[in-house]
C-alpha cells in the first residue's frame, strides 16, 4: 500500500498533454517531433496495447481481438498501462504526451482521478477522407491488423461518436489547441510548437 502511494505521488505534479485526433490524423508523427524538440516522454496508448499483444500473453490475445474489430479496450486496462509507464519514467521526464487517450469522456475523468489534470489538449485535426487515405497507405507497410478498410471505418465511426465529445469537454475548460493536420508535417509542427510554447512554465 505504502509503496504504491509513493510511486503515484511521483506523477502527481507532472506536466500532462493529451494528444487527441482521429485514427491516422498524424498524432504519432507530431509526437515524435515534440519528443525531439522538447524532450517530453511519448506514451501512445495504442503502442502500449500493441506491445502487450506482441508479448503473446493471455491478456494480449484478448486485446488483439478487440483492436482487430476497432472497438475500445476496457478503460481500466489502458489506464493502468499508462499509469505504470508514467511511474516508470517519472524521475527523468520533463512532461508526458499521452497519445490516443482519452478515447471517451469517461476515460478523461478517470485519468484525472487516478493520475492528474492535463494542461493542454492538442487536437490533431484532419478530414476523414485524409485519414482514410493515410491509414490505407500506412497499412501497406505497418503490419497492423487494424489498418484495413473495414476496421478503419469502424475506428472512424467510433472516433466521431465517442472521442470528439472529449474535445468539447476540454474546450469548456479552455485547454484545447487545434492544429490543422491537412498541412505538411513541418507546418503542422509550427502550430504544435506555438501551442506548447504558450504553456506556462
Ligand atoms: N486508449 C486506447 C487506445 C487504443 N485502443 C485500441 O487500440 C486500437 C489502435 O489504437 P491507436 O494505435 O491509438 O490507433 P489510432 O487511433 O488509429 O491511432 P494511430 O494511428 O496513432 O495508431 C484502437 O482502435 C482500439 O481498439 C483503445 O481501445 N484504447
Ligand atoms: N501528408 C501528410 N501525411 C502525414 C501527416 N502526418 C502524418 N502523416 C502520415 O499519415 C499516417 C498516419 O500518421 P500517424 O502519425 O501514424 O497518425 P496517428 O494514427 O494519428 O498516430 C502516417 O503514414 C504518416 O506518415 C501530415 O501532416 N501530412
Ligand atoms: Mg499513432
From TrEMBL:
Biological process terms in GO annotation: ADP biosynthetic process; AMP metabolic process; ATP metabolic process; nucleoside triphosphate biosynthetic process
Keyword Ligase: no
UniProt enzyme class: transferase
Keywords: ATP-binding, Cytoplasm, Kinase, Nucleotide-binding, Transferase
Location(s) in or outside the cell: Cytoplasm
UniProt-listed InterPro entries: Adenylat/UMP-CMP_kin (IPR000850), Adenylat_kinase_CS (IPR033690), AK1 (IPR028582), AK1/5 (IPR006267), P-loop_NTPase (IPR027417)
Catalytic activity: dADP + GTP = dATP + GDP; dATP + AMP = dADP + ADP; AMP + ATP = 2 ADP; dTDP + GTP = dTTP + GDP
Family from the record: Belongs to the adenylate kinase family. AK1 subfamily.
Listed NCBIfam families: aden_kin_iso1, PRK14527.1
Function statement: Catalyzes the reversible transfer of the terminal phosphate group between ATP and AMP. Also displays broad nucleoside diphosphate kinase activity. Plays an important role in cellular energy homeostasis and in adenine nucleotide metabolism. Also catalyzes at a very low rate the synthesis of thiamine triphosphate (ThTP) from thiamine diphosphate (ThDP) and ADP.
Domain comment in the entry: Consists of three domains, a large central CORE domain and two small peripheral domains, NMPbind and LID, which undergo movements during catalysis. The LID domain closes over the site of phosphoryl transfer upon ATP binding. Assembling and dissambling the active center during each catalytic cycle provides an effective means to prevent ATP hydrolysis.
Record text on subunit structure and interactions: Monomer.
Protein name (record): Adenylate kinase isoenzyme 1
Source species: Oryzias latipes (Japanese rice fish)
Organism taxonomic ancestry: Eukaryota, Metazoa, Chordata, Craniata, Vertebrata
Amino acid at each position: 500500500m505504502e509503496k504504491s502511494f509513493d510511486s503515484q505521488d511521483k506523477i502527481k505534479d507532472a506536466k500532462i498533454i493529451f494528444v487527441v485526433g482521429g485514427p491516422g490524423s498524424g498524432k504519432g508523427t507530431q509526437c515524435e517531433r515534440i519528443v525531439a524538440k522538447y524532450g517530453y516522454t511519448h506514451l501512445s496508448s495504442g503502442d502500449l496495447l500493441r506491445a502487450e499483444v506482441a508479448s503473446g500473453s493471455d491478456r494480449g490475445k484478448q486485446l488483439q481481438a478487440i483492436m482487430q474489430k476497432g472497438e475500445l479496450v476496457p478503460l481500466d486496462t489502458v489506464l493502468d498501462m499508462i499509469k505504470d509507464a508514467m511511474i516508470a519514467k517519472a524521475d527523468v521526464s520533463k512532461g508526458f504526451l499521452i497519445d490516443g487517450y482519452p478515447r471517451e469522456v469517461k476515460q478523461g475523468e478517470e485519468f484525472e482521478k487516478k493520475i492528474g489534470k492535463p494542461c493542454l489538449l492538442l487536437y490533431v485535426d484532419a478530414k476523414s477522407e485524409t485519414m482514410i487515405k493515410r491509414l490505407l497507405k500506412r497499412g501497406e507497410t505497418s503490419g497492423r491488423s487494424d489498418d484495413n478498410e473495414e476496421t478503419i471505418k469502424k475506428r472512424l465511426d467510433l472516433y466521431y461518436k465517442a472521442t470528439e465529445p472529449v474535445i468539447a469537454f476540454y474546450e469548456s475548460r479552455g485547454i484545447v489547441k487545434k492544429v490543422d493536420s491537412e498541412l505538411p508535417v513541418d507546418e503542422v509542427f509550427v502550430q504544435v510548437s506555438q501551442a506548447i510554447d504558450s504553456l506556462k512554465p
